[in-house]
Amino acid sequence: MSTDDNVLYVKFSEAITSIIDSYKEAKSDGAISITDVISLLGTVVSEMVDVAEAFHDGNGSAKKAAVLSAIDMFYEEVIAPMDIDKIPNFIEPIVDKGLKQLIIVVADGVIDTVVSIFNKGGWPPTPDAPVEPTA
Length: 135
Prior knowledge:
Distance between the termini: 35 Å
Shape: globular
Strand content: under 5%
Number of strands: 0
Number of domains: 1
Oligomer: single chain
Helix content: over 70%
Largest sheet: none
Low-confidence stretches: none
Radius of gyration: 17 Å
Mean pLDDT: 76
Structural class: mainly alpha
């Protein structure tokens, strides 16, 4: 495995671990609320932006599209299969579609916010980044 592959693996591993930990915390009481979903979405967006910034060759628009695509996949694989209490099953697909669109719109704004924060405060370093000498 090359150094770049190793760094990529570590970065993705850390991101997935963080997302799984957030999911377990949200589900610790046996159910996941809309508030939990939004919090989990924040974690997913932050982690995916960090990974996209570190490893996606492209401009900001391409990186944002990659993150939104990852969030779309995350929604389809994790959130959509959850049964929403008090919503009849025959209406749930309509609610899922609307919720997914809402999450994508919110994620779009969160991505802009996370990137703005990282641009002002500095991006998290990659594991193999050289340490800058202090003066």
